Amino acid sequence: MENGVSDEVGYDVRAVRQDFPILGIQVHGKPLVYLDNAATSQKPQVVIDSLVHYYTRYNANVHRGIYTLSEQATAAYENARARVARFINAPSPECIIFTRNTTEAINLVRYAWGADNVRAGDEILISEMEHHSNLVPWQLLAQEQGAELRFLRVNNEGRLMLDGLDVLITEKTRLIAVTHVSNVLGTINPVKGIIKKAHKYGALVLLDAAQSVPHMPVDVQELDCDFLAFSGHKMMGPTGVGVLYAKPHLLEAMRPFMGGGSMIRKVMLAESTWADVPQKFEAGTPNIADVIALGAAVDYLSDLGMANVREHEIQITQYALDQMREVSGIKLFGPWELQTRAGVVSFVLDGVHPHDIAQILDSEAVAVRAGHHCCQPLMRRFNVPATARASFYAYTTEEEIDALLEGIHKAQRVFGHAIERSV
């Protein structure tokens, strides 16, 4: 195995890295080691080029222009929708709604579906490991509608405690909103079983797929989820574009998210009628350039093969865990079983605050995240104020994991000495 990739992985990581200009830069005079992919991923040159090409060759508004540039822009925009639909095996492009990010996609469901389908006394089931973006909207909806929030708890291994699912799901359950992959623990939740059980009770399921769609094959028809949300910037695409997938009959029944241009069929002074799905949910001028660039990112990932991306991340995560568990005074969070864990490793060090770990690592050109990762309830569950988090992607190498370990040892030396001097 070389650079974390065995012969079974269907691409050359060294070659892949050449496609990402930023991976060749230096920070503090040292080669960049980028290990914050759960927050945002880096972009291949083909994605960057797609943005430049749009703005320099056919920049125009979409859908209504009766001239060549507008028709080219419209074709590219809608072609990106079709490519995203194929990427997650949606039944049609019309199931794909473009938003700004995962957060907006979830809030779209909260407003456009939740206000009409959740009533006083109803229940919404969410988990203890949710990102705030899949927690706060449901808190607000429950408060507004008089509904009750119920919670799936997390065990010490970082897995959902599903033994009580039959008790938690009741005839009052209207929605289960759960992350497909935890952005802190790396846990890959068994969502297909949750979805099947929810549907027996007539409940719908929304998946926060921000950490799954970029890293593994996801098939919405095979999962049978009702809603699925993810972001472009975490999957080698640009910032400012996200996706909501929903089943067609749900989209047809849902009210518009925002009012304005593009989402209407007929406007009168006192009332209006709505355009067909998906335009009904895309008011105003959309983020044309970034949608087109997301299409380029989808093509790039499809060429790599999502099964290959997943296999590489299993191998690189195994290498990281094997090295990190040998560090004295370290505590790692999340499952040990690699088949149910994504490429995310959160950790704390005895006597060193996670922010100090991140700062020392930055001095070695190693970029990691430190903080509560928008998961404050989960931090309280594990009785820590914050963790440091290293997260991997298709271009991560063993050498980068080695640099991470060297930085961790440096943090221990620096702060170990500081502690000794203060005693």
Structure at a glance:
The chain is an alpha/beta fold and 423 residues long. The protein contains 14 helices and 17 strands.
Description:
There is one protein chain. The chain has 14 helices and 17 strands. With 423 residues, the protein is α/β, with parallel strands linked by helices. The protein has a 7-stranded mixed beta sheet, sandwiched between helices. Strands 13-14-17-16 form a 4-stranded antiparallel beta sheet, covered by helices on one side. A hairpin with a 4-residue loop joins strand 11 and strand 12 (272-274).
H/I helix tally: 14
Overall average pLDDT: 95
Overall domain count:
2
Structural class: alpha/beta
Write the CATH homologous superfamily of the largest domain: Type I PLP-dependent aspartate aminotransferase-like (Major domain)
Using the alpha-carbon principal axes, give the shape.
Answer: globular
* Unreliably modeled segments: 1-7, 417-423
Strand content: 15-25%
What is the second-level CATH architecture of the largest domain? 3-Layer(aba) Sandwich
Spatial separation of the terminal alpha carbons: 46 Å
Name the CATH class of the largest domain: Alpha Beta
Largest sheet: 7 strands, mixed
- CATH-defined topology of the largest domain: Aspartate Aminotransferase, domain 2
**CA-based gyration radius:** 22 Å
